[in-house]
Amino acid sequence: MLCLACTMPCSGSLCERCRFELRPAPEVSVGPGLIGVAGFVHEGSARRLVHALKYRAVFAAAVPLADAMAERIPGSATALVPVPRARLRAFRHGIDPAAVLADELSRRTGIPVVDAIRPRLWWRRHAGRSREERTSVPFTPSGVSVPKDAALVDDVLTTGATARAAAAALEGLPTLVLVATRASRMESGESPYGGAVTVQPFSGPTDRSTLRAQTTKAGRFNASSRRSVGHSRDREEYE
Ligand SMILES: [Zn+2]
Fold this sequence. Notes:
Elements: H1 16-21, E1 28-31, E2 34-41, H2 44-56, H3 62-72, E3 80-82, H4 87-93, H5 97-109, E4 117-118, H6 131-134, E5 140-141, E6 151-157, H7 161-169, E7 176-182, H8 208-221
Helix pairs in contact: 3-5
Residues 3, 5-6, 8, 14-15, 17-18 line the site of zinc ion.
């Protein structure tokens, strides 16, 4: 088998080195009455897993991510509401990661998936935009009723703006957002509005050349998968 995060040959779904790199993420406050719970901090192998899922439609990458998320779902969660990707983006990448993660979580926990948010055709990325623009992610309720204590499900939590917009679209009913990974800068107790919670700069250990090397490796790995996506599309996305 090949490691899902680094594509090196290994015996399980993740090699020992990538397993060692996974870092659990403490809960964060995302907004009034909205708590963020993540499987891992968005770095190293966890980040590579999310990228494989999100940009290269490697569905198997959802498995170790959902395993970690499932362990952290509180018993009070009544429903899983995926935060949909813009429809054109889902088409372009061949996957809606939040929907895949929600299905995997439902399989593990028995909690039903409720498609309460209708995906829009498109909205702009958040990177480099002002805070006002970042908070204006458009969501509309699908009309399906959402039970109290429903949990939103998304792939990555960066600024929390998307999760807040999704919760607001459902009149604040979701009290929790479950994500595969979250930015390491989002620490517990920081104000979601005061600017303390910001977009994580990805210039740390994974610099541009490392990222390019990973992309090339992953591209080779994906030659046999059902869909191969060009390198230029493997960019961090703040949706
Ligand atoms: Zn690995």
